[in-house]
Design a protein that fits this description.
heterodimer, A: 7-stranded mixed sheet, about 55% strand, B: mainly beta, 6-stranded mixed sheet
Chain lengths: ~110, ~110
């Protein structure tokens, strides 16, 4: 299965600022996904990021708040913009490769 | 959207006991997946099920894809302390690279 490196692993940020999370994959993949996991909760899909096209956002998530870049087949970034304490969550990237999903270790974000 | 109802929400068991958890849905799914998440990590795939009635084992873990395609269960036999974690079911309505829908998770605690 694909190996994902996600950075940073954790961060504490001031409200009103933005954080960009990076997801690097060790192989070329077409489909990458970004999830949010709020404290004690399950995973909720934020958006699907395919190379060469605009990201597709799920209901309740908008591009202005969570802009995504997908410059090539091995890399993507998710930015959490104008953060508030409600954005404190684990953010995970995932890829579809070799007929299965692989998840990164996540970025634990705390907004103060 | 589609929802997966996962139960129980949490379990406290003694080492050596067997564990069972399940997921149900009002929708028909083509794929059922079971993941485990350790603290500070992303979910790791345990078992994938692709056919109604399919029963698949992975070591001490056994999972089944319900005949109605609306449910799945995961059993863990002879639990050990490293089984501690959160177990998530996930489903795909169509399979392949379609996005995942996650259950809310079952938090397992194993007392030595």
């Amino acid at each position: 299965s694909a190996v994902i490196s996600q950075k940073p692993s954790r961060d504490i940020c001031q409200r009103g600022t933005s954080l960009t999370i990076q997801c690097q994959v060790d192989s070329q993949v077409t489909m990458m996904f970004w999830y949010r996991q709020q404290p004690g909760q399950s995973l909720t899909l934020i958006a699907t990021a395919n190379q060469g096209s605009e990201a597709t956002y799920e209901s309740g998530f908008v591009i202005d708040k969570f802009p995504i870049s997908r410059p090539n087949l091995t890399f993507s970034t998710l930015t959490v913009s104008n953060m508030s304490p409600e954005d404190s969550s684990i953010y995970l990237c995932s890829v579809w490769a070799n007929y299965g999903y692989t998840f990164g270790s996540g970025t634990r974000l705390t907004v103060v | 959207g589609q929802q997966l109802n996962q139960s129980p929400q949490s379990m406290f068991i003694q080492e050596g006991e067997d564990v069972s958890m399940n997921c149900t849905s009002s929708s028909i799914f083509n794929t059922w997946l079971w993941y485990k998440q350790d603290p500070g990590e992303g979910p790791v795939l345990l078992i994938a099920l692709y056919k109604a009635g399919e029963l698949t084992s992975n070591g001490r873990l056994t999972a089944q894809f319900g005949i109605t395609r609306k449910d799945s269960f995961l059993n863990i036999s002879a639990s050990i302390p490293s089984d501690v974690g959160i177990y998530f079911c996930a489903g795909q309505l169509k399979g392949g690279s379609e996005k995942l829908v996650f259950g809310k998770g079952t938090k397992l605690t194993v007392n030595p």
